[in-house]
Fold this sequence. Notes:
Elements: H1 23-41, E1 46-47, E2 53-55, H2 56-60, H3 65-68, E3 73-75, E4 81-84, H4 89-98, E5 107-117, E6 127-137, H5 142-158, E7 165-170, H6 171-178, H7 185-193, H8 195-198, H9 205-214, E8 218-219, H10 227-235, H11 241-254, H12 265-276, E9 280-281, H13 282-296, E10 299-300, H14 302-315, H15 321-332, E11 342-346, E12 359-364, E13 371-377, H16 381-384, E14 393-399, H17 400-405
Parallel strand pairs: 1-5, 7-11, 8-9
Antiparallel strand pairs: 2-4, 3-4, 5-6, 6-14, 7-12, 10-11, 12-13, 13-14
Helix pairs in contact: 5-15, 7-13, 9-13, 11-12
Amino acid sequence: MHRQPTQSTNSVSRLQGMNDLPEDAWRQKLGLQDRLYEQLSGYGFRRLETPVLEPTELFLRKSGGELASQLYSFTDAGSNSVSLRPEYTSPIMRHYLENAADISLPARWQYCGPVFRFDISHPEASGQFTQVGGEFLGSSDIAADVELIDLALAVPTQLGLDSWSLQLADLDILDSLLDPVGVSERARSFIIQSMPRLGEGRSVVPKLLEEGRHLHLVGGSNVSVDPEDAALRQAVYGLDDTQARSVLLGLLQWNSADHLGQRTPDDVVERLLQKIKGTDREDKLRQGLELASDLAGIKGEPELALQSVKKTLASAGANQNAADRLSEVIGLVSKGPDTKGQILLDFGLVRGLAYYNGLIFEVSHPKWPGTLGGGGRYDTLSRALGGSEAVPALGFAYNLDALISIGAS
């Protein structure tokens, strides 16, 4: 006789976002996973598995504030700060840097496995989900960008999905627009992260300027300068942020009297750099925000959107090369007869990871509240993770559970 199980009053409940998977659902997921594996293999992507648990620092070096706030992190028994893997790109770049002597570039890797993120604004969407994707290291050619977009388009097409859209932008175009203004690297990062809001129009610029003041991004001649800050500022004058960090770290290590407390030398250096590297004049930041707002409002069918982009660049006296390159990429993308989605340009798009530096994209579907997947180019990540030189790279990933939820077959 089988007894019906009863729930004890002191039983352990399941965490939100951590779901059980019965066998039928598991078989469906495994079948879809195998199909995507074959698809990526056809493009030359080889399987690579990375640890679920990694040093927290790996995900903080160049990932940006949004991901940092979503980490499931803790200190292990050995007093090491570790995190559950929130994405695959950084671990795969780490793998390359650790084994570069034995790896010939270009290299293509694919992956499929659990990742973990906590979204404080949407706790019900937090927890574990399965990410499937690929990373392409070692090529800065247009052909690499085209290959990645073709593959990203092929996933929903091959899975029988319709009504999806791929939104595409290029951060190099934004950089080209800001170059004549001469805003600092910190101000540029602030503008990039503000692009979704700037898409609402120039009316949001005063609010963002106020935020820039609170972040000490802008200053003027009436701002008093501490003598020590002035000396440090002179020491790093003319250096880019990477070089300035090296100088400040050396000074910090030389000055043994400095008490770090609970902060690491890197933390102290980052704070010093933000304090002394200099601020933008307010008129420069305002001009940068206004130009970026003009760009962020451009979205729609690629040909018409690119015409608007080129007009915006021309009016600012900016270089057109990045726009020409994007136009060439779009012209080469293979949108086959079976494709039941659309490609749109959206220059208000910003991926939530700070390591992107060029082409970026996201795929959405009306049946899914967030993004199905996305990716882009991240040529600067290798240096951020300790590499001696830049490694051109790009990649993409899909949420496998989301694909299943909206009816991928």
